[in-house]
Each structure stands twice: as structure tokens, then as C-alpha cells.
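Question (not urgent): is this output format expected?
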Amino acid sequence: KSSNKHPSQTKVKQKFKKSPGESSIRLEKVGKKAIINNN
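Got this back:
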């Protein structure tokens, strides 16, 4: 049930399994953009 409620989380986990380095960098960039947009 949790996977259906949060499909985005499952996608992120799959990315980490494939390439944790690249996915982590992407998440950091997205987080920075979100912070800038919020401010």
C-alpha cells in the first residue's frame, strides 16, 4: 500500500540502486532548487 501512496519514493530507490552517486547529486540539485523557489 505504501508503494502505491508514494510512487516517487520507489523511483528514487531504484535510481539509488542503479547509480547512488549520480542520483544523490541530482537530489541535492533538486533540493537546492526547491529551497530557492520557497524563498
